[in-house]
Specification:
GO terms for molecular function: lyase activity. This is Cryptochrome/photolyase family protein. Keywords: Lyase. The chain folds into three domains: about 110 residues, HUPs (Rossmann fold, 3-Layer(aba) Sandwich); about 180 residues, Serine Threonine Protein Phosphatase 5, Tetratricopeptide repeat, CATH 1.25.40.80; about 170 residues, DNA Cyclobutane Dipyrimidine Photolyase, subunit A, domain 3, CATH 1.10.579. Helix content is about 50%, strand content about 5%. The protein is built from 22 helices and seven strands. The strands form two sheets. It has a five-stranded parallel sheet with strand order 3-2-1-4-5, with helices on both faces. A two-stranded antiparallel sheet has the order 6-7. Strand 6 and strand 7 form a beta hairpin. Helix 6 packs across helix 11, helix 14 crosses helix 15 and helix 16 crosses helix 17. The longest helix is centred in the middle third of the chain and has 25 residues. The termini are far apart. The chain binds flavin-adenine dinucleotide. The site of flavin-adenine dinucleotide (FAD) has 28 residues, from helix 9, helix 11, helix 15 and helix 17.
Length: about 500
Amino acid sequence: MTVWVLGDQLTDRSGPVAGSDSALMIEATAFGRRLPYHPHKLTLVVAAMRSFRDRLRADGRTVHYYQCETFADGLAAHAAAHPDDHLRAMTPPTHGARDRMAAMADEAGLTIDFEPDPRFLCAPAAFDEWAGDRDEYRHEAFYRWQRDRTGILIDDGEPVGGEYNYDAQNRETPPADWSPPAVPTVDTGVHTDAAAEWAAEIGEDWADPATFQWPTTREGALDVLDAFVSDRLEEFGPYQDAMRSDSWAMAHSLLSPALNLGLLGPREVIDRVVAAEDAPLASVEGFVRQVLGWREFLRHVYRREMPALAAANQLDATLDLPPAYWTGETRLACLADVVDGVRERGYAHHIERLMVLSNIATLLGVRPQALNRWFHAAFVDAFHWVTTPNVIGMGTFGTDQLSTKPYVTSANYIDEMSDYCSGCAYDRSATLGADACPLNTLYWDFLDRHEDRLRANHRMGLVYSHLDDRDDREEIRTRADRLRSDALDGTI
Ligand code: FAD
């Protein structure tokens, strides 16, 4: 029996590899060409696979490692050498992947069976029991249930500190003289240079291939976790929603690539954070909420709601993605800075993803699928199961299955939570006029265009009363149309 290990299933601490001494790994070049992937994403996955292979071999296990064009080629080569082999695999979270793997194995003449995915704390059956037959999901209810059933941050049946959620304490902005905590220096592993060369050969050149800085081994990932707990956790909570042009990482953990590849497990990461002495509860709970709550919640909503979720577009958005998302060339200081960061390192933190990248695309009326494709290609931590619910659900309100209202905002929120607006070519306080911030025009236009759907939403009542007070709706529509075509022309 041989365990077929995919590039994001790199754990030997649990799952099928833990109980086997033989593994099959396939580097499939065609897979890396399916989208214009960020070279760091390709480097990360391939270097991490090679390191995992070395780790298993050093542990005395056999690893059949194939570098070929497609998975089918790799399986055919393996079947030719080991015709009677039986494969076992971890069930992949990507929709349809299990069936595709089974069909490919069958085509190669090999048998295969699947084990549960140990990289999440909530098993499918448990989530399904909690969710029943609902098709609308609210995170807060799931999160409380997860806390109660795991006992994480629960004391004598009650949430530690008396509340389940300290979100209200996660929205501060740092003072002007704040020095962001140092970004950890990462040991990127021995395979990074060769993997980067391979990525440069097959990949696109829209992003900087030279600045790779993610861990590709478990040891490197543990170092990033250590650095988070000792240097960054304290400020993670209060500044979770803040953005600063001089700090791409703020106090975020930078753990998503390692978690999504399996180099770290959610339980060990949560346990380390919960055990951190002296860390403020709002930081600890804020982190637990992301990993125990959001990450698991979205993975299961995706599992249950695919394939319709990926295609959802309830606002009938039709615009293509503006070129600024690839080039970073725009006069909007917030968008330019965040896209520059993505080009440089394949990363932006949560509030940049939600309130800058998704917000601007949603206000413009970009097709959720076009934005999802971009996120999937551009981010080092992007995998279909996590990008899709985040982009289609939270980011663009392509469906209301995950949230009751769209996360959209004018320049007001960006100005409050960041220092972008003070250095921007646009005027944050104007809605009309050549220099008015496009977000203001587009925000009112968004409410106007989607009035039929959104006005009745009780959480939108106040903003619609402000729209009712405006007597410039026609001018707003005209300017919004022009901004949309400017965005497509790359001149916004
Ligand atoms: P921290 O802020 O330190 O959070 C800690 C951990 O919590 C993260 O590492 C991650 O594992 C988990 N987490 C937090 N929020 C989410 C969430 N909404 N969904 C899933 N996990 C979460 N996350 C990805 O891992 N891959 C993606 O492709 C991805 N795409 C996103 C697209 C959009 C439009 C939005 C709004 C969010 C997306 N996220 C994605 C979620 C989140 O933004 C990232 O997990 C986070 O920014 C990663 O940085 P970090 O490790 O420093 O996170």
